[in-house]
Here is the input.
Amino acid sequence: MGVSGPSRVNGTYHVAVAQKERVRRTRLLILVAAVFSLLGLLNVVLINNDMTRIEESGPQHLALAGGGIAHFVPSILAGFQRAQQSASTVTVLDPLDPRHSVPFVEDKRALERWTAFTGLSLAMLFVGLESRIPNSTVHPRSPTGTDLSRLLILLSVTYGALSFFESG
Here is the structure.
């Protein structure tokens, strides 16, 4: 006949060991996610700076005005007006435009993939941080961390998938 509730072995509860193990795994998850997020952010910044340098190396009349937010918009979405043109429409690209060069397109693909990686890392971080919130009998724990992580996962996977269609 079994006894319900926590069992004792040598005067200690198994539940305490399981809780310590869970706290250790949560801390490890947070540490790994934070390191991955920082690595992803560093690569995003470095690649964005390289793309800006490539753009600035082109002729002055092709320079972009404003910030570099266009670097983060996938070309399949940025060039939506090209999808609406008839098949007989000829679009000629300026051969001097550095935004259509091979290094720039490769950087754009890498930027999109590192941004997706960073988003997935941040989602993992939010899951770890959300599990550190103590349970309360007064207020239920808000699922903001898991809701935000689900949204980040969805956006990151979509963004990473769009990077395969990058053509410059």
Summary: The first helix runs from residue 14 to 56. The two ends are 71 Å apart (CA to CA).
